[in-house]
């Protein structure tokens, strides 16, 4: 029933501008929408225009949400093309984002993990998604 539908992953942040910069400048996603002071919330949606997923980052004015609960809260991008994968890893480093050791060593075998400003981890996995 959900096949072909758009997925939105929404999460709050205390560092809205820094988080958006990580996902846009670093990972190359685009700002596809935003809002300000909607009932006390500011938000930015990032993804690829017309893509099947996007991320919504929100900040509730006057409230604090803190950092990621654990270092194993992950978003994984599967990038099977070695050259494309290396370009993205190099670009992240050039933007000032340094890789971190993955909490689960599995992700370090074929991937590189980066931590966003809230402590959530993004794995760039040099592999195809295969079930």
TrEMBL record:
Gene3D superfamilies, per the entry: 2,3-Dihydroxybiphenyl 1,2-Dioxygenase, domain 1
Start and end residues of each VOC domain: 5-127
Pfam families linked to this entry: YycE-like_C (PF22659), YycE-like_N (PF22658)
Protein name per its UniProtKB record: VOC family protein
């Amino acid at each position: 029933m959900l096949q072909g539908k758009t997925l939105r992953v929404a999460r709050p942040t205390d560092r809205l501008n820094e988080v958006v910069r990580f996902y846009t400048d670093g990972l190359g996603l685009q700002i596809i929408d935003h809002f300000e002071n909607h009932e006390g919330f500011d938000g930015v949606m990032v993804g690829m225009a017309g893509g099947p997923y996007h991320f919504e980052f929100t900040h509730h004015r006057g409230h604090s949400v803190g950092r990621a609960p654990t270092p194993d809260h992950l978003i994984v991008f599967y990038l099977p093309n070695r050259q494309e994968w290396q370009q993205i890893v190099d670009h992240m480093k050039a933007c000032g984002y340094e890789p971190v050791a993955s909490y689960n060593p599995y992700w370090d075998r074929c991937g590189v993990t980066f931590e966003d400003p809230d402590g959530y981890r993004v794995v760039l996995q040099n592999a195809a998604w295969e079930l």
